[in-house]
Design a protein that fits this description.
Blueprint: H1 2-23, H2 45-55, H3 76-79, H4 99-113, E1 116-123, H5 126-136, E2 141-151, E3 155-160, H6 166-178, E4 185-186, E5 196-201, H7 204-216, E6 222-226, E7 230-239, H8 245-252, E8 256-260
Antiparallel strand pairs: 1-7, 1-8, 2-7, 3-5, 3-6, 4-5
């Protein structure tokens, strides 16, 4: 008996669920979305063209003999046309160069292309360089730059000071040879006559080693550079086509005027 009652209860429950499923109300549709009045509606370019055609915003043909009016272009910000530039909502403003700016840039580029550049010098110190700058500006120098060039000696030599006479020089040379130094020469004449030449070297380090060895043996040798060594100053100038480089060289008192490239010649002081 309990089993039969349980079965009847299960049948009734299933029947009730099936009846509810068949008679339940359908899902309610969401409310329609209304766009606020202060927010413009987005339009595609095709929609804008279609609306314009439908509303009659099409330029009427001009009468015979009169030039046609150019159609009004739709702004990219209103149409969303990214091919013509960033839209107003993209966050990136469109930068368009003004015609006058483009013309000024072209003229500046043309002027730089016509410049020729020279280097005047060498000058021993800064004073003649400053004087040359003042002299070259009236001659048409547009830009100027001072360039310092460090010149290395041609080589190094080791020597000892001239002796009183040739006999003293020969005696000293014999002592040096006896100490184991064979590479030497008694200078026969000139300003250093009767001096002892103890070798010529391509680097300062080698000359200093020779000097140290001789001094350790008791001989006052001295390492010296060969040729002029020091800093030379050059004045680099950029000028226009009519600039006379030879006349400028003479006016500046420079020994040389070299043609150089114009890259990097920038100076705060310009002629004119």
């Amino acid at each position: 008996m309990p089993a039969r009652a349980l079965l009847v209860l299960m049948v009734m429950l299933n029947f009730g669920v099936a009846t509810w499923w068949l008679l339940r109300p359908g899902p309610s549709s969401p409310p329609a979305w209304l766009q606020p009045d202060d927010v413009p509606r987005l339009q595609l370019l095709g929609e804008t063209s279609a609306d314009g055609a439908a509303s009659g915003n099409v330029a009427a043909p001009a009468p015979a003999g009169e030039p046609e009016a150019m159609p009004t272009a739709v702004p990219a910000a209103a149409t969303g046309d990214h091919a013509n530039g960033p839209s107003a909502g993209s966050g990136t403003p469109a930068v368009v160069a003004a015609p006058q700016q483009v013309a000024d840039a072209a003229a500046s580029t043309q002027g730089v292309a016509e410049l020729r550049c020279f280097s005047f010098g060498p000058f021993a110190d800064a004073s003649p360089v400053a004087a040359a700058r003042g002299l070259l500006q009236p001659l048409g120098a547009a830009r100027m730059r001072v360039r310092d060039q460090v010149e290395a000696p041609r080589g190094w030599r080791v020597a000892m000071a001239p002796q009183a006479d040739r006999a003293a020089a020969d005696a000293l040379a014999a002592k040096i040879r006896a100490a184991g130094f064979d590479d030497l020469l008694v200078v026969p004449g000139g300003e250093e006559a009767n001096g002892i030449a103890l070798g010529r070297y391509g680097s300062e380090a080698a000359a200093r080693r020779r000097e140290s060895a001789l001094r350790a043996a008791g001989f006052p040798a001295l390492a010296q550079p060969v040729g002029d060594a020091g800093t030379r100053h050059w004045l680099d100038v950029a000028a226009g086509p009519g600039f006379d480089a030879e006349a400028a060289r003479r006016a500046a008192g420079a020994a040389q005027a070299r043609d150089i490239g114009c890259a990097g010649i920038v100076d705060a002081t310009t002629a004119g």
